[in-house]
Amino acid sequence: MTSTVEGIHAVILETHNWGRTAKFFTALGFELDFETDHHSGQFRADGGPTVFVVEVPEDEPTRSSLVLTVLDAATYHPDPSLQIEEPFADTHYGTREMVVRDPDGRSWTVRAPGGSAR
């Protein structure tokens, strides 16, 4: 049995200026959930997915990505037609994630709660 993606968990955005981008999201009505000590933080607005913003050096291009949610990495069996770049693995922040590539070459992260697959 193949379980399905539950929805969008988060949007991850890279920026060259954390402070300016934080002010932008606050002006849009997002609330800052938390800020890290390395120029990043998470925003939330009324029940939607979180937006995690992280500053990267000026000489690096900025990227954005979506994080999709599944309930359990152990029971999620992706369709064999999916191109898996990275299988589920533990993260340093307590989840398990895998990365798949879509037909246009974009990477998508699929996230499950930590400890659900061994």
UniProtKB/TrEMBL annotation:
Protein name: VOC family protein
Domain of life: Bacteria
InterPro entries attached to this UniProt entry: Glyas_Bleomycin-R_OHBP_Dase
Source species taxonomy: Bacteria, Bacillati, Actinomycetota, Actinomycetes, Pseudonocardiales
